[in-house]
């Protein structure tokens, strides 16, 4: 995946573009009746799956206990119940709730804070966005890439089933509601896909939401692409409203997607234009990607100035949100 310190833009991205075609007829309620199965990824036979039963009725979900309630609630200790290897440096971690019927309490878009206190040293605190549905009872799933310098990701990588980790939240990110924007553009790198996927689930699980979505998703190799099957299923089901443009730094010979890194030319071609009415862009990825595409955040509460490619293309600060 991307090095945390670099996101090269010198190599042009080669991408075949197709127009949004007529939307395929929905089956039932679209994603509402689709078994939630995360597609095969990883090295060799590494397979990533997590299952979601048919979502319960909204009233039933509303009545269920919520594990995370925010506010003055402290950290909650959850047990690691399952680990799945997705690639040589990425795993899925399933943490179970004490109440198997409870739901997380997260909303779109929000995240959780994780905390680990090493035997010696200061507490390590990092935010993560679960990839499991907010209405899934009994557990939450995190997909985390291990970075050599990443203290929390290295700790998670060393954990065994049965060990526990502290969580707190939900931490509000961007308040989403159906049809809030006509068209949104998502620019993601590596595991930065997780908050984007949270938005996608909310949009396409809701038959009343008609938002159009364009995703630009960059990785180093094809094996690094997370949630690829889910993204492909969404494209096939909603071709008039959802399109993904993949970019690989090291594409295989048979690769037909984009080659190279995010460029001004690519984003100008595929994203909604700055002058379009009621559009929004979302960015999430390694620090180097932020620097090149939008500029980084000053803090969780301060989005900072808009710089980089998106500024050069004429977008203003109010049109861009940095996860």
TrEMBL record:
Any one GO biological process: ergosterol biosynthetic process
Chain ranges of the FAD-binding FR-type domain: 73-177
Known EC number: 1.6.2.2
Coiled-coil ranges from the UniProt annotation: none
Enzyme type, top EC level: oxidoreductase
Family label: Belongs to the flavoprotein pyridine nucleotide cytochrome reductase family.
Role of this protein: May mediate the reduction of outer membrane cytochrome b5.
Protein known as: NADH-cytochrome b5 reductase
């Amino acid at each position: 995946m991307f090095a945390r310190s670099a996101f090269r833009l010198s190599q042009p991205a080669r991408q075949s573009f197709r127009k949004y075609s007529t939307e395929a007829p929905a089956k039932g309620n679209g994603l509402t009746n689709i078994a939630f199965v995360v597609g095969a990824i990883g090295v060799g036979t590494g397979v990533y799956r997590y299952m979601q039963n048919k979502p319960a009725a909204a009233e039933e979900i509303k009545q269920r206990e919520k594990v995370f309630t925010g506010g003055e609630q402290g950290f909650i200790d959850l047990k690691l119940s399952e680990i799945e290897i997705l690639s040589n440096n990425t795993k899925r971690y399933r943490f179970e709730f004490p109440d198997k019927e409870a739901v997380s309490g997260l909303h779109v878009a929000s995240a959780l804070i994780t905390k680990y206190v090493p035997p010696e040293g200061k507490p390590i605190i990092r935010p993560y966005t679960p990839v499991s549905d907010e209405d899934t009872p009994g557990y939450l799933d995190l997909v985390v890439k291990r970075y050599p310098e990443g203290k929390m990701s290295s700790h998670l990588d060393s954990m065994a089933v049965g060990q526990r980790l502290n969580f707190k939240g939900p931490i509000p990110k961007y308040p989403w509601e159906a049809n809030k924007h006509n068209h949104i553009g998502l620019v993601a790198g590596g595991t930065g896909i997780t908050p984007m996927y949270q938005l996608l689930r909310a949009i396409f699980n809701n038959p009343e939401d008609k938002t159009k979505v364009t995703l630009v998703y960059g990785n180093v190799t094809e094996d690094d692409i997370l949630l690829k099957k889910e993204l492909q299923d969404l494209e096939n089901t909603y071709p008039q409203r959802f399109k993904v443009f993949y970019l690989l730094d090291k594409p295989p010979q048979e690769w037909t997607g984009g080659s190279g890194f995010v460029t001004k030319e690519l984003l100008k071609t595929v994203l909604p234009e700055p002058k379009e009415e009621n559009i929004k862009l979302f960015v999430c990825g390694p620090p180097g990607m932020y620097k090149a595409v939008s500029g980084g955040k000053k803090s969780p509460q301060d989005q900072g100035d808009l710089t980089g490619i998106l500024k050069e293309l004429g977008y203003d600060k109010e049109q861009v949100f940095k996860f």
